[in-house]
# Entry
Amino acid sequence: MGKFKRTVYVVSLLLIIVMLVVALLLREQYLLISFIIILLTMFPFFLRFERKELKAEEIVLIAMLAAIAAVSRIPFAPLPSVQPTSFVIIMSALVFGSEVGFLVGSLAAIVSNMFLGQGPWTPWQMFGWGMMGFTAGLLKNTVLMKSLIGRNIFGFVWGFIFGWLMNLWMILGFYAEINWKVFVTIYSASFYFDLAHALSNVFFITIFSSIWLRILLRVKKKYGMLKEEKR
# Structure
């Protein structure tokens, strides 16, 4: 990872931590703060893309992947936490890198919520799915992500991490007094939903990851699209 990428990611992480602390102290301003958080976390990634000369085909590809991730969520809406959105985000990141993974994840959240309903949860979903794609991209060349078992472990773990992030916005938004009892209650109640998300990730990765990776790698190689810079 180059110096520029390390700098923007560290700054982004620090801003997230600062804003979460502020959110805990000023919960009455939760909605405003949550949008500030997502804007600050998105900024470094858009800044990176602004520095690149993208072809029209590459922009269209990112938009298509985000649209597929978003639309694939809608038919599964009656099944809480079961959807292939996370799978599409992870596959996009494994082929095209961490920045594309973040953009596909964050865009998928806001686009799908145009159909399923926007609200104060949207920025947190954008951040959660964005960071899922970002971390998948960072690990794409590791032994973990090159094996089916490793990809399944990653998808399973992130099923829970995503749920934990969404629990955090619920606690900040609906509880006037925050203590360990509240955390234990909320996180315990969400366990089965988080487990459903984790298991659905494993299902889609097991059944479809090999063919998705072949198709996306073929597109990347054939058209020379979205090659990551080595700094």
